[in-house]
Amino acid sequence: MKNMMLSLIALIALSASALHSQDKTDSSPHTVQFVTVDKDVKLEVLDWGGTGRPLVFLAGGGNDAHVFDKFAPKFIATYHVYGITRRGYGASSKPAPTTANYAADRLGDDVLAVIDALKLDRPILVGHSIAGEELSSVGSRHPEKVAGLIYLEAGYPYAYYDRSLGDVQIDQNCLQRELEQLSPLVPPKKSQVQELLQSLPQFEKDLEAIQKRLPANSDTMPVPPITPDIQIGLAAMRGEQKYTEIHVPILAIFASPRDSGPMFKDDPSARAAQDLYLSTVVNAFQAGVPSARVVRIPNATHYIFISNEADVLHEMNAFLATLP
Question: What is the pTM of this model?
Answer without folding.
Answer: 0.88
